[in-house]
Design a protein that fits this description.
Elements: E1 3-4, E2 37-38, E3 58-66, E4 72-80, E5 87-94, H1 101-111, H2 121-126, E6 129-134, H3 161-175, E7 179-188, H4 190-196, E8 206-212, E9 225-226, E10 229-230, H5 232-243, H6 259-266, H7 270-277, H8 282-289, H9 295-300, E11 313-318, H10 327-335, E12 344-349, E13 363-364, E14 367-368, H11 374-392, E15 402-406, E16 411-415, E17 423-430, E18 436-437, E19 448-453, E20 493-496, E21 504-518, E22 524-532, E23 558-567, E24 586-599, E25 604-610, E26 639-644, E27 652-658
Parallel strand pairs: 5-6, 5-7, 7-8, 8-11, 11-12, 12-15
Antiparallel strand pairs: 1-2, 3-4, 4-6, 9-10, 13-14, 15-16, 17-18, 17-27, 19-26, 20-25, 21-24, 21-26, 21-27, 22-23, 22-25
């Protein structure tokens, strides 16, 4: 749900202490004082002690806004001091902290009295009353904070984010002077979730929503799980981040520099509470108590209650979003079930989590976008006009349903339907000799490639040392990182095509159909679809550097386009896991999400298959048990994995090829 941003930001700094859960005080080390959570509005640097030379042209007023159950939520109203005309309200609801007048005045002293964060500039030019609110139980807001998205439409007194947003908006239009009666709500990640939840019960004054990188089902996909496979490092660190202290965003204090080593040494997941958390982190406890897709997780899947476009809404997703790439597409599809007024819109671009709110977006990692400043273009050409039309009544309604940035060609495209009408699902076959092609195998005899998966030596999900999820920046771009760092491992199978003799353009959902077996009774399979760049002559984001290092190049780069995991115990039922039959090949259907990309002529297509992805995905013991979370060290065993490639067992990738 949450990304990390460093640099000059808008929110008031919060002093962050690390969580002291280690067995020896001598192992503790200091951590960064400021956690910068990248949402629509990141936090600001701590205000300097010296008084600023000039004050901001924006005033910041704090209120405690009452909710229906008597709880009051800390809220700030930010507006220009010289406002004369009624303006719409733009609301963001967050668990991460909200800014003060001192933060605005400090930045005004450095950058001028009209300073606003980059992500606000296009909106501020149109004129808004900006409102930020801490969620209940966070910082000065009263009540109890829960990491939950539950909403019960039959219980109007329930304390939840949908009702809190309703009460907040109702209070704002009645109590904030000189507003025009129109309210928009937006945000990225958790802030995007709180915006999206208003779709379930929008108040009359709510006229526009932009839920950006919003999660929708924390067991099925997005932050905490991928089809039931636990995102171990993320779930552990984020639960601590938000629930260790209501007045802080708390980074867990690792006593080992390489967190890959730390999580491997941690061993079975029962040790997390036994040695470090001691039952004090509620959401981690919930995860450990609910390993399957039971009523607890189904009640969190709020998107299942959404079946129409209730308010004009602009969904935003990143193709390399390392946290919430799946939810926005699900919201779009659910709202599309009934959209008679064509008010349901979708935007997807070449971004990591929340990158579209960063200044330019001219690249992601080393990958350049052909001169496009994709983040700036999104805010200027899509986000600002969307709110301008629905909140100011100016401009024109979007004449498209979906807008995407196609990587490879580096071009923007608009669509009236998604997937595009001329998209054709096309099979790309894995062959036993390690090649890939669009031609299937003709032989009926079972052929396979195999490897041994050892939980004691799992494949890292990014290059070691693996830094903590927050606040280090490496987390942002790992989903597009060069995969050459694992293609030599004996427990990673690589399949690669010949250089393409023509462009292969894909737009729509990608999937893997893997016929595979394991010698164990449970297992994971991870599939990666990769664009392999030629060995020379490639453009790179470091082109302007006089003498970049040898590694700072796209020459030979293995760029992941889609990657996902499936857990064997859930192949037949997410509710009731079942053991696998040893050495019996079965069909592993692995969704790889929506993409818009061109594999250019001269490039090659690669597929990698592996069974561990650590520590972003917890280790499967490879021996079936009622709950992996209760496994002991002795339960983790090596297993022989086979991927089949034949006429009768044709492992393949399904590409949405556009003619």
């Amino acid at each position: 749900m949450r990304g990390v941003k460093e640099g000059l930001l808008v929110r008031e700094a919060v002093r962050h202490s690390s969580m002291k859960f280690h067995r020896s005080a001598s192992t503790r080390r200091s951590v960064l004082l400021v956690l910068c959570v990248m949402l629509v509005l990141p936090m600001a640097l701590q205000a300097q002690a010296a008084a600023p030379a000039q004050k901001s042209n924006y005033s910041v007023q704090e209120f405690m806004v009452p909710m229906r159950d008597g709880v009051h939520l800390q809220t700030v109203v930010i507006r220009r001091r010289d406002q004369t005309q009624p303006l719409p309200i733009l609301l963001t609801r967050t668990p991460y902290g909200i800014p003060t007048q001192e933060a605005f005045d400090e930045n005004a002293a450095k950058y001028g009295p009209d300073w606003v964060p980059d992500s606000w500039k296009q909106l501020a030019a149109d004129g808004y009353i900006f409102v930020l609110q801490n969620l209940r139980g966070r910082f000065k807001s009263e009540g109890v904070f829960q990491l939950t998205s539950r909403y019960d439409p039959h219980n109007p007194t329930q304390a939840n984010e949908t009702n809190d947003a309703y009460d907040t908006i109702d209070w704002l239009v009645k109590n904030v002077p000189n507003n025009n009666g129109r309210v928009g709500i937006y945000g990225v990640s958790y802030d995007g979730l709180t915006a999206a939840l208003t779709l379930l019960h929008p108040p009359p004054a709510l006229k526009a929503i932009s839920e950006q990188a919003s999660p929708v089902d924390q067991w099925m996909n997005d932050d905490m799980h991928r089809y039931g496979a636990l995102r171990e490092s993320y779930a552990f660190e984020y639960s601590v981040l938000e629930e260790a202290d209501k007045n802080k965003n708390t980074n867990f204090d690792f006593d080992t520099y390489d967190t890959y080593e730390w999580y491997l040494r941690l061993g079975p997941l029962t040790h997390a509470n036994a040695e470090y958390l001691h039952g004090k982190i509620p959401f981690w406890n919930d995860i450990m108590e609910h390993p399957n897709y039971d009523s607890f997780w189904k009640s969190e899947a709020w998107v299942d209650q959404l079946h129409s476009s209730t308010v004009p809404d602009l969904n935003v997703a990143g193709f390399w979003d390392q946290e919430d790439p799946w939810g926005p597409w699900q919201i779009f599809r659910h709202a599309e079930e009934h959209d008679p007024n064509n008010t349901n819109f979708m935007v997807a671009g070449p971004w990591f989590h929340g990158e579209w709110q960063m200044p330019e977006g001219a690249n992601i990692g080393l990958l350049p976008f052909g001169g496009h400043k994709t983040s700036l273009e999104f805010r200027e050409n899509i986000e600002a006009p969307f709110f301008r039309y629905y909140l100011h009544g100016e401009g024109s309604k979007p004449d498209w349903k979906v807008t995407t940035f196609e990587t490879g060609s580096n071009t923007w495209h608009t669509w009236q339907t998604w997937p595009p009408q001329d998209e054709k699902p096309t099979n790309l076959y894995l062959h036993a000799d390690g090649t890939l092609s669009f031609a299937p195998d003709s032989g009926a005899e079972p052929q396979y490639r195999q490897y041994v998966s050892d939980p004691a030596n799992p494949v890292p999900y990014r290059t070691r040392p693996v830094s903590p999820t927050y606040p280090r920046p490496e987390w942002r771009t790992w989903e597009m990182a060069d995969q050459r760092f694992v293609d030599h491992r004996p427990d990673v199978l690589t399949f690669v095509s010949e250089p393409l003799d023509h462009d292969v353009r894909i737009a729509g959902p990608v999937a893997a159909d893997l016929y595979a077996s394991t010698s164990g009774t449970d297992s994971d399979f991870i599939v990666k679809l990769i664009d392999v760049f030629p060995q020379s002559g490639q453009d790179t984001a470091t082109a302007g550097i006089a003498d970049p290092s040898y590694a700072q190049s796209m020459n030979g780069y293995e760029l992941p386009i889609a990657m996902e995991v499936r857990r064997g115990r859930f192949l037949h039922s997410f509710d009731h896991p079942q053991p696998l039959v040893p050495n019996k090949p079965v069909d592993w259907q692995i969704p790889l999400r929506d993409h818009d990309h061109v594999f250019l002529k001269g490039h090659r297509i690669m597929v990698q298959v592996q069974s561990t992805w650590f520590p972003v995905i917890d280790r499967n013991p490879q021996k079936f048990m009622p709950s992996i979370y209760q496994a002991t060290a002795q339960d983790y065993v090596p297993a022989t994995q086979r991927v089949y490639c034949s006429k009768d067992l044709p492992s393949h990738i399904v590409l949405p090829v556009v003619q």
